[in-house]
Amino acid sequence: MPRSPILSASRIRTAALHIIDRDGLDGLSMRKLASELGVQAASLYGHVSTKDDLLHEVAAGILEQVDVSGFDGGDWRHGLRSCARSYRAALAAHPNIVPFLAYGPAHREASLRRLDVVHGGLVASGWSRREATMIAAALMYLVFGAALSSFSSGFSEDQTFYRDRYPNLDKAHLLPAVARELDHDSFELALDALVTGLGARAHD
């Protein structure tokens, strides 16, 4: 039997994501990752060169869950909706890595492949290249905005905090209890407004 655990790229990514989920982005270090895997830090460098490279690989694994197949049938509305929903779900499962992903596609293959499908699907539906870029950007603003924070859970559960000072927010203390449902419905409202608004000026 080997004296130390056998490493693989997949095992390293899984352990790194576990640390990020548990301790946040700043909590990930090559030394901590090595300890989690039961190896020496030097052993990791045969699989990944730097922490930044590792983060890109972890991000790529998350992005593989983003579904852009909705553009295959030529229905850009369905494509945008399915892409946005699957993207939000992927990010919601690992919120601590969202700030890293929010910097844009950079040179991540998984990001660029999906963006290429979205852009191509929009242009094929009659949108100009500039419009397609703007629509993709707007979709990312919506998805990452939803993933970075919870509007509903940010309120205090103390009714007295709002009742006398903010009469129109007298029920705001109830929001944290229904945050998950309300955040979902708010995202769907914004997504529908985006797609419907674009539909009003569509070329098809």
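(the above was protein one; protein two follows)
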Amino acid sequence: MSSADTIETTPNPEAAAPESTEHSHAHDHDHEPHHHGPSLNPECTREVQIEVAADEVSKAFRTVTRRYQKQARIPGFRAGKVPESLIRSRFADGLRQDVVETVLPTHFREAIDKAGLRPISQPQVTDLHLEDGQPLKFKAVFEILPEISVDGYQDVHVAKPDTELTDTELNAELDRVRDSRSTMEPVAEDRTLVDGDWAQITFRGEIKNESNEAETTEAAAQQPITGDDVMIEVGGQNTLPAFNEALRGSKPGQELKFEVSYPEDFGERRLAGKTISYDVEVKAIKKKIQPELTDEFAKELGEYEGIEDFKQKLKDHLASDKKRRLEGETRDKIVEALIAKYQFPVPESLVQQQVDARLDRGLRALAQQGMRTEDMRKLDFNRLRDAQHDSALNEVKGSLLLDRIADAEKIEVTDAEVDRELELLSLQMREPIETLRTRLTDDGGLARIREQIRREKTGGLLYQKLAS
């Protein structure tokens, strides 16, 4: 993750962000207190006490009650003719909730404006007292952005990376391209397998009995490990030593028996820590033939004029990718150094929003890998949230610092820059750009895009100033 792309749920000091587990800016314009919420950082927490006059409360009760009378459908009464007393008894909880939602927002906004406070979390209502004919009293608790000084940030320095592409890197990529288009050709001569050959084999493996009864039962229940016409490089660095030793010097038609003890951390779980007895038949010896770097080969790869054109475009792509990657890593190091340099309290609501965003990305990745929804529900989300907390905290701290430095450097984002990002998103999502713009404006996404672009520009400026 680059330094300019560190937090999805960005603080908006102009508004109270609603309690939400995702895209918390969807109602940034609301300032409406909620009755419950996440734990808050005491150093960033503020409280306002509010009292609403009894006559305004009574007026709200009458207005809400009349609305309920018009909508209520109760057997024995005509529509709109249900007695007010019955409405108040039957729908007491709903009436109270609607009165609170009618009265609270305006008075809360007035209270924070008067106090000069700018909430960035959804306010939590406590000590609510509501009775018809009496003043409405409540407290609202919320978080604000901390005071952050970035004085001296110019003193932070990190090593500037060498982003030049080397000939070794270019040649290695050319070899990978050739290897991807290589063919396997049979070896006609009568000889044994040597390093560099590819053995075409058929094999069957069985897990040896373990002394532990539970492991024996588990092993017996597993299907044999088999493979037909599998290609294995003799002496290859990715080939297990036991296979190299057994195959080296053997000939087609030969049958081999040997055992392989797999380490506990072996990548394939059913083999990890097991000893497998293999029966292997060598079917053929083959050589991998890589294509020559000719103009014809280049044209097979794409719309290239010839091999030199392909090499140049590959070099440009690799150089650009290396430069972007190393500069991104350096910007991350700069942000890490800034986080270490400045200590300040961080609103817990922003941290929890970032935990939500990280978990959301993780769950989407699991879903793409084929994990079923019912299996996801079995995950220990409390443990997962705890595990994400420290990383989320640093991401929020990094974003807040970038925002303050952007203020100090007077970095602005133009409408043209936002439009370019929208055009890319429109192509990626296959959604008409104006439809996308409207949707992102309504759910706060456009503001997040603008903030992300601003941070990216700030990260680029810091790279120019602080990397040396």
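Reviewer note on protein two: The chain is about 45% helix and 15% strand.
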